[in-house]
């Protein structure tokens, strides 16, 4: 039975790794990103070469009408949505001390990272509830948050707040949707080699060299994608509202 996974921020980095892995797992892929398709055609060609069925949707998840269109186009193409991966997110355009953060930056980051997540999940959950159950659950929602949901970074406070909000959304939707057969999970990546971390690579290289991370290496997008793959399958049927750290052990408190 064919199932469909909707992934936001799917054109590169963690999102693309997730799209490819879930495609290899047998899901049809609705890949959402803000850029035009031709800009991301190289990555999409990789999906095609891997035998993955996909649809590209250019959209901004912070936009109300775009969120409605994302769900409609996915269902029109594939007939249903079985997995939603809320991966799309942005960092502040400029890192600033908490006392210098602008309202504009706060609003931008929260609008995409938290509000977009909240209301796209709402739309997808409504769609999932109308669908027949295939397998042992009706649907799966996976939120990609961050270790920043708990770790303070005072030079990008708006990002930390946005990801802490995603963690609460995970709990809220897990609570609301469990009776509908829809399970909700959260993945908290640590230092992952992506465009977002490339600008501060020297800082993280030093932290890794200083053994702040028990697994002393950069994470890669595929590390996150494999965790998503496990949640999307039927391996975790008696757990919801939980999270897993994909951070090389960074969360471990050590003396």
Structure, briefly:
One of its GO terms (molecular function) is oxidoreductase activity, acting on the CH-OH group of donors, NAD or NADP as acceptor. This is 3-ketoacyl-ACP reductase. With 255 residues, the protein is an alpha/beta fold.
Strand order of the largest sheet: 3-2-1-4-5-6-7
Please compute the radius of gyration using only Cα atoms.
18 Å
Biggest sheet character: 7 strands, parallel
What is the chain-wise order of helices and strands? Answer: EHEHEHEHEHEHHHE
Organism: Candidatus Ornithospirochaeta stercoravium
Keywords: Oxidoreductase
Protein name: 3-ketoacyl-ACP reductase
Family: Belongs to the short-chain dehydrogenases/reductases (SDR) family.
Explain the overall architecture.
This protein is α/β, with parallel strands linked by helices and 255 residues long. Helix content is 43%, strand content 16%. A seven-stranded parallel β-sheet has the order 3-2-1-4-5-6-7, sandwiched between helices. Helix 1 links the parallel strand 1 and strand 2. Helix 1 crosses helix 8, helix 3 runs parallel beside helix 4 and helix 4 runs parallel beside helix 5. The model has no long low-confidence stretch (mean pLDDT 94). Belongs to the short-chain dehydrogenases/reductases (SDR) family. InterPro entries: NAD(P)-bd_dom_sf, Sc_DH/Rdtase_CS, SDR_fam. Keywords: Oxidoreductase. GO terms for molecular function: oxidoreductase activity, acting on the CH-OH group of donors, NAD or NADP as acceptor. It comes from Candidatus Ornithospirochaeta stercoravium.
